[in-house]
Each structure stands twice: as structure tokens, then as C-alpha cells.
Amino acid sequence: MIYSIKRDHARFRNIVKGKVKQDLKKYITHGELLGRKGKDIVTIPLPQIDIPHFRYGDKEAGGVGQGEGDPGDAIGKGQPREGQGVDGEAGNQAGEHVLEVDLTLDELAEILGEELQLPKIEPRGHKSVRTIKDRYTGIARAGPDSLRHFKRSYKEALKRQIAGGVYNLAAPLVVPIKRDLRYRSWRSVVEHESNAVIIYMMDVSGSMGDEQKEIVRTEAFWIDTWLRSQYKGIETRFIIHDATAKEVDEQTFYRTRESGGTLISSAYKLCEKIIETDYAPSEWNIYPFHFSDGDNWSGEDTRVCMDILKNTILPQVNMFCYGQVESRYGSGQFYKDLREEFGEDHERIILSKVENKDGIIQSIKDFLGKGK
Question: How many Å apart are CA 135 and CA 283, to the nearest integer?
């Protein structure tokens, strides 16, 4: 019975994954998973239809079938259900039936990787995170009941009965006793795992409105989900900038709106400082992401940005990603300047344009599709 339940549960999980994969574009572009994210799981709302069933009232309520009444008498009106018209009138809308299921972030990353055909990332740098894990590698004569090994216990009991001449082939009955019981045993092993840091930078000048920030927030959620499935130790840092740059927490990153000018070099200088201070390239996999509408204060500041990228940031990172979020107020010039300076096939810089929410999927493929 237990194995049947496990099979049914596994089958249900596969159905859920198939449904999420089928509607992945909707989940990504609408951003509805972001508010349902826990520490390690995400709640997925899936539409469903309930099987119709009778709903019985209290026995003392009276009415047809329980009190006075003759065959053919009309039954009194009840309360309209969702999707039904009021005052007894017929409704033409279906009721809303939603089933909420939980998927781990690893399962969500697996679906994302399969659907977008993302390659596994090859970490660079030394493996510097030491973790201790318990691995079941043997059999012991003592242990908790939860680790009892049924097959080995049965075999020990069978061997004992055969050796003692009490085993009856015509009526086989094998009953383990205490000395027959065997348990799974473990040993602790030290594993070295790659660690990584994601450094998000975003232009928060007046031209970056709520719609642009929502696009960045949604895309960052899926980037985080994928990279966390590739690295066990990962950190996230956030930088906002207009004419000056500062490091903030995640909530401030997505909620701040300024109105000053834009000096992109201020963000790149702060990113450079964070890497130099906290993340040695020999030990960390480094992923800076910069989102902007493409406006910069001057051509001179753009040249400063190019020098910082070329001489400091790019030699130290796995890849540098620039996402240009379209805005009615942004010129988009910085994307053109980066493409002219580095080309479209640079080893470590990836450029992407995000015109609207529908462009998030392609942008994710642009950034993560090279497996770096």
C-alpha cells in the first residue's frame, strides 16, 4: 500500500511538472510565482475542476426528503455559487478552481533548464566551500528502527533457520529475531563545492519606472533559481545607481526610484570594489548583471565604463551580463556602445534587450545559454 501511494505521488509530481512546463511562459512573464516563494519551495497555482458531488445538510433542517412535502414539489432556492447568477438567474461564468502545489526550487530550475535547453554550468576557480554530508555506505547490527534494512534482516533470519535445520520448505515462515536485524549505517564525508556570487546592478533614475523594475525583478528570480541549482554556496549583492551608486538590500533594490542623472561608471566602480574586497576570482564564480534603459550622462563616462570592464571586471568574472530594458524615455545608446566595443560574440560579455515581459524568456536564454 505504501509503495502504491509513493507511485501515485511520483506520478502526480510528474503531471504537475508537465503542467508547469507547458505553461512556463505564462509563469515567467506574469511573475505570479514571486509572491509565492518560500525559502526552498515555490507554491504553484494550477487550475483544476472539482468532481461534482452532493452536499448534505443537517438532519434537523427539514425540507423535502426530511419533512413535509410531496413528489413534484419545488425545492427552495439556495445561495448562488461562484459563477452562478444572483437572484436565481443562470450565470454564464465558470467557477474558479485552483489547486496549489509546492515545487522545490531545484525542481523549478530543472523545468526551466529543460524548457529553455540551458546547458550545465562549468564552474571556474577553486572549490572552496567545505560541507559535511552523511552517506549510507554499509550495514550495522544496531540502529534505529527507521534505518532497518528489511532484505538484509530477512536474509540473516533465513540463513539462521537453514543452518539450524528448522526451515520448512513446504510451509516457509521466516521470522527475524533480534540478532537477525540489520540496519543501514553511514559515514560522514567532506565535500568541496563551488561557490558563486551574483552582483545585480540597476539604473534607478526616473526613466526606469515600475514596469521596468518588475521586468528586472522577474528575470532576476529565474536567474537566481537556475544559478542556485548549479552552485551550493551562492551569495547575492545589490547595487543601485543614478549619478552615484550604493549597495542596498534586495527590497530597496526593487523599490527605489530616483530622478537624477545617470553615471553608469559609478556602479561599475562599486562592483569592482566589491569583487576586490570580498570575492577573490580564484575562489569565486562571479556573475555581474547590469540592467538599464541605456541612457548615460556622457560619452566620456561611457569610455570610463569600457575601461573598467576591459581592464578589471571582465578578466575576473565568469560572464558579465547587460540587460537593456526598453523605456519610452531611454535612448538605448549604451547597448550600442557595448556592442561596438566588444562585439556580439565576446567570450565573457553577453548583451540582451528586453522590450517587455514577453522578452524575459529570450533574455534568460541569452544570459544562461552559454553555460559559463
Answer: 26
The residue that leads in pLDDT, 271 or 243, is: 271
Rounded CA separation 116/44 (Å) = 19
Record the cell numbers describing residue 369, joined without a space: 545559454
User: Alpha carbon 256 to chain centroid distance?
Assistant: 24
Distance (Å, whole) CA 73 – CA 115: 58
Kindly list the domain boundaries of the chain, sorted by start residue. 2-50+96-116, 130-191, 195-368
Report the CATH fold assignment for 195-368. Answer: Rossmann fold (3.40.50)
The per-residue b/e assignment along 153-189, b for 16 or more CB within 10 angstroms, e otherwise, is beebbeebbeeeeebeeeeeebebeeebbbbbeeeee
The CA distance from 350 to 246, in Å, is: 24
**CB 263 within 8 Å of CB 244:** yes
Average pLDDT of the chain to the nearest whole number:
78
Q: Under a CB-based contact definition with an 8 Å cutoff, are residues 130 and 191 in contact?
A: yes
pTM, 2 dp: 0.64
Residue 13's nearest CA partner among 101, 99, 98 is 101
Closest CA to 139 of 188, 187, 182: 182
